[in-house]
Amino acid sequence: MAAFALTRDIVGDSGDRAPARISARAPSDGERRLAARLARGDQSALGEIQAEYSGVLRGYLQRALQDRAAAEDVFQQVMVEVWQRGASFDPERGSILSWLMAIARSRMIDHVRRHVPEPQDPGETTRLIDLRGSASDAEDDLAAQWQMAHLLTQIPREEARILWLRFHRDYSQREISAEMGIALGTVKMRMVTGLARLRELMEGER
Questions:
Q1: Mean pLDDT, range 77-98, rounded to an integer
Q2: pLDDT of residue 115
Q3: Under a CB-based contact definition with an 8 Å cutoff, are residues 33 and 92 in contact?
Q4: In whole angstroms, what separates CA 83 from the centre of its chain?
């Protein structure tokens, strides 16, 4: 199940869904200040970004590239680009994490292109184009999963655990109740509350 299926508000095992509308989150004063510091070349701003998001970026790159050294090399390229393009980041248009993930994906694709030679056989070339199309879809899903993992750290742990079991382990609400040793009604209440929090964060990432 794709990571961003979490936008669906599941209120019962019957499959009934009650969509909720939550307005997009405006950037916080802290995000605006961080963007301003980065734009004027404040190295401490870059340090804060690296400290906050390096785990998400490195995890995504390592999973995508399956090579720790390559992932670290691409991560360093991302940080250099963040520093160079600091003045172009606008917190009103999207979150820092979305901006970072877009840069990371672009640099990761560049790395793959540099290290995968084109075959001479036209039939093999066609096959690789098809494979790369599928790989691109997988990369998008992987990026979404790492973004979601980061967002789950920003909501209460008991709610995050329920959402993780539901959408990443495909547990039913009754199975979650048994796994966590809590009442089914509590599971449903925490799921609804957690989804509302998560949807608000996701709107802020767009």
A1: 89
A2: 67
A3: no
A4: 21
For residue 4, is pLDDT > 60?
no
Which residue type, as a one-letter code, is found at position 203?
E
Span(s) in the chain for CATH 1.10.1740.10: 24-153
> 80: which strand partners?
none
Nearest to residue 197, comparing CAs of 145, 146, 162? 162
Q: Are 98 and 206 in contact (CB under 8 A)?
A: yes
* Tokens 């963040």 found at: 82
CATH assignment, 24-153: 1.10.1740.10
DSSP state of 119: P
What is each CA distance from 158 to 70, 83, 169, 176, 179, in whole angstroms? 35, 37, 16, 11, 12
Residue with tokens 């539901």: 166
Instruction: Please say whether the structural domain 157-206 has been given the CATH code 1.10.760.10.
Output: no
For the segment 47-80, what is each residue's pLDDT rounded down to a tens digit?
Answer: 999 988 888 888 888 887 888 898 999 999 999 9
Residue 17, SS3 per DSSP: strand
For the question of whether the overall pTM of this predicted structure is more than 0.85, the answer is no
